[in-house]
Amino acid sequence: MEVEVVKKTSKGIKAKIAPWIAKLKKIKNIEFILCLFIIAIALLLYNGLTKENNDESIAVSTETVVSSEEARLAEILSNIEGAGEVSVMITHSGDEINGVLVVASGAKDIAVRLRLLEATKVALNVEADIVSVYASNKV
What is the Cα–Cα distance from 5 to 1, expressed in whole angstroms? Predict the structure, then answer.
């Protein structure tokens, strides 16, 4: 009985599709239209794949910008009197800065620590509550 149901269903589908196929065959240049349709689908798929690669390259370039920004800030902060050797880490989501960590050998002195905090705030245009300054264990 199941076989009969399948045969009836496939015959029913064929009966419903047959008029559409007949109409499509009457259309002039149907092959040309189908080719254009297939090319359009291929271009859409290619564009989707390319966009994913662009997203990855944007993420890599953002990381490069942040690491160069960290290096530049560390160099500037190390020029502050008494700061000594300085390391900087910037955390972010997208293009927004979430936190800044500054580790300096001279940050044991509270005055140096405050100058580093103020300079970091100004350089990155961020609030003080997302900047942390710590003393390094290196002398």
Answer: 6
The closest of 62, 81, 80 to 70, measured between CA atoms, is 62
Give the pLDDT confidence of 23-70 residue by residue, as tens digits: 767 777 777 777 788 888 888 888 776 665 555 555 555 566 668 889
Whole-angstrom distance, CA of residue 45 vs CA of residue 50: 9
Domain count, the chain: 1
Domain harbouring 40, CATH code = 3.30.300.30
Report pTM: 0.55
C-alpha 137, offset from chain centre: 35
C-alpha atoms less than 13 angstroms from C-alpha of 61 in its C-beta half-sphere:
6
